[in-house]
Amino acid sequence: MNITFIGFGKVAFNLVDIIQSRDIVFLTSKENRSESTIDLINKSNVQVCDTFMQAIESADIVISVNTPSKAIEVAKSYSKYCNGIFLDLNNISPKTALEINDLVDNFVDGAIIGKIDSKNPTIYLSGSKAEELLFLNDYLDIKVISDNVGDASRLKLLRSTYTKSLSALLIESYQLAQSLNLEDEFFNTLSLTEGDDFKEKSLSRINNTLKSSKRKAEELEEILDYFGNGDLEMVEAALKKLKQF
Ligand SMILES: NC(=O)c1ccc[n+]([C@@H]2O[C@H](COP(=O)([O-])OP(=O)(O)OC[C@H]3O[C@@H](n4cnc5c(N)ncnc54)[C@H](OP(=O)(O)O)[C@@H]3O)[C@@H](O)[C@H]2O)c1
Question: How wide is the angle at C-alpha 63 spanned by C-alphas 62 and 66, nearest 5°?
């Protein structure tokens, strides 16, 4: 089986590393790619074609994993060469997933939950062809949620509604504790109910959120745009908070 990546960054690199099978050949191309991507390709066990078109034509599965803002453009440019399943793993909105579905045959909507280099990477899939990817369960945690393209992206957005809003609240509470010089005590009291690793997890969440506050704020805007009809007050407050950093 041939699996072709359009985009060879952290996700593709990790997937090639995780999915090790004699029956699977990974393909990609260095066509118009940056030095850092070419470096990752050289470090990976992936076959390189001269063009993406060549890599896609012989693929049973094409995985588009580049950047959310390019997902539609990539689908438009390359889906015509795809004879197999076209899986999008970009962090795209349900609207974008539906747009791609109109452009692509055999489309599967995919959502990576958490980081791809976490201990047990989990991928949610939806679409009528999603079940054909269940064999990947030998290597990853794959969950097919429905036949409807858009459900995987919707679920990811729904999850972010909770996690991103909670991060904003955590930052606010932590900063208050800092201003009162009660940081350790703040974490200690919360650990009593939230678990021993609460401090470690919270500090990591706070750092990640502050480091990429612009991207997280954009995700909250996307949530409001997609689900909001004026009643997502907590999400609106979290957005206001994240825009301060
Ligand atoms: N990393 C994660 O754990 C994670 C988790 C959930 C979702 N995601 C999603 O997965 C996608 C990829 O993430 P990543 O972490 O792998 O990103 P990354 O490390 O930044 O890599 C992105 C790759 O896409 C390539 N690319 C960009 N535009 C392209 C195009 N038009 N044609 C072909 N290749 C193109 C880039 O090549 P150049 O360097 O040449 O531009 C690079 O190889 C994103 O949509 C992200 O939202 C990632």
Answer: 135
- Closest atom of ligand 1 to 67 CA is 45
Ligand 1 pocket residue status of 115, Cβ below 6 Å: yes
Mutate which of 49, 53, 66 for ligand 1? The one with the most ligand atoms within 8 Å of its CB, which is 66
Give me the chain's average pLDDT, please.
Answer: 96
Query: What average pLDDT does this structure show over 132-143?
Result: 97
With 90 as the cut, is the pLDDT of residue 229 above it? no
Question: What's the pLDDT at 115?
Answer: 87
Token reading at 35: 């030095």
Q: Closest Cα to residue 103, out of 130, 77, 84, 66?
A: 77
Q: What domains does the chain contain, in order, with CATH numbers?
A: 2-148 (3.40.50.720), 154-242 (1.10.1040.10)
Q: Which residues contact 139 (CB under 8 A, 6 or more apart)?
A: 18, 19, 20, 21
- Tell me the pLDDT band of 78, cut-offs 50, 70 and 90: very high
pTM across the whole model: 0.92
Answer whether 64 contacts ligand 1 (Cβ < 6 A): no
Instruction: Using the mean position of ligand 1's atoms as its centre, give its distance from the Cα of residue 91 in Å.
Output: 10
Smallest CA separation from ligand 1 atom 21, residue? 9
Q: Is the pLDDT assigned to residue 44 strictly greater than 90?
A: yes
